[in-house]
Amino acid sequence: MNAITLGSNGPTIAPLGIGAWAWGDKLFWSYGKDYDKATLYDAFKTALDVGISLFDTAEIYGFGESERLLGEFMQQTDRSRSSVHIATKYFPLPWRFNAQAVADALTASLKRLQLPTVALYQVHQPFDFLMGQTTLLNALADEVKQGRTLTLGVSNYSAEQMRQAHRILADRGIALAVNQVPYSLLTRQIESNGVLDTARELGITILAYSPLSQGLLTGKYTADNYTPPIGARRLNPQFSQSSLEKLAPTIRLLTEIGETHGKTPAQVALNWLIAQGNVIPIPGAKNGDQVRQNAGALGWSLSPDEREQLDRSTATSR
């Protein structure tokens, strides 16, 4: 599977990354209980060992703890920091109403990460408030010019919002590198709402978060062994028992296809996403074993017929 270059001046990376939302997060996830700093460091090192270099974090993940952990891990590893590509995010809070707020937020993120620059800096949500998109995106463009981020991206932007962001940045001679959105076999709305088509038209990479639908596509959660969800999964109606019953045929298909290739349902689901072209799934991983499992999505391809079967099986998710 071909590597993907972010933007016009960004790094060239494998078409798979690591989502670090759960790293250090006690509010939505169980950091400090069933996983800790040591298991996350194992995930970090394992990712680099298997050729995964992109780690996606944000200033609000764990109230900055996700960034701090990544900064610490980069200092501890014997790898060159240039082999690690960090993507982080600016959250447009209502009281951030001028360009200086963007600069201050990135300064704080870089301090936690212990880096002079990041590979990708993204707007976490398409909120305007008092700043407005023009001021926000020009402030981000300034950070590229100053070398504090190599590329720029957005997250959760609609097709029209992407076009606006692309247009504003293009006036500064900067490409919009990514739009980070939910995308999986069970969440395919970007195929019908114009986001995927617009990204392809404008050369924007899709960073697919929740590419395994918070674990639903692993086959771990079924109606037969149903237990009420905890943590962030409590907010997801797809974890209800009735939804899991409807999901069963898709899990059976993923399992059958996986057996043909010696792969797990999750690896098949991630491979299907990568096969869409210019899409980088960023599944979460809390330990080295989960990273190795995710990496099993690389280095092989589904057949056209298998992709078509999966398309038909989950067509209602568009």
Structure write-up:
Keywords: Oxidoreductase. GO terms for molecular function: oxidoreductase activity. This is Aldo/keto reductase. Pfam families: Aldo_ket_red (PF00248). With about 325 residues, the chain is of the alpha/beta class. It has one domain (about 5-215, about 265-300): TIM Barrel. It has ten helices and ten strands. The protein has helices at about 35-50, 65-75, 100-115, 135-145, 160-170, 195-200, 240-260, 265-275, 290-295, 305-315, and strands at about 5, 10-15, 20, 55, 85-90, 120-125, 150-155, 175-180, 205-210, 280. The strands form two sheets. The chain has an eight-stranded parallel β-sheet with strand order 3-4-5-6-7-8-9-10. Strands 1-2 form a two-stranded antiparallel sheet. α1 (about 35-50) runs parallel beside α9 (about 290-295). The mean pLDDT is about 90.
- The arrangement of helices and strands along the chain is EEEHEHEHEHEHEHEHHEHH
Portion in strands:
5-15%
What is the CATH C level class, in words?
A: Alpha Beta
Helix content: 25-40%
Spell out the CATH superfamily: NADP-dependent oxidoreductase domain
Number of domains: 1
Gyration radius, in Å: 19 Å
Largest sheet: 8 strands, parallel
Describe the global form: globular
Termini Cα gap: 25 Å
How would you classify the helix and strand content by structural class?
A: alpha/beta
CATH topology: TIM Barrel
Low-confidence stretches: none
Number of strands: 10
The main sheet orders its strands as 3-4-5-6-7-8-9-10
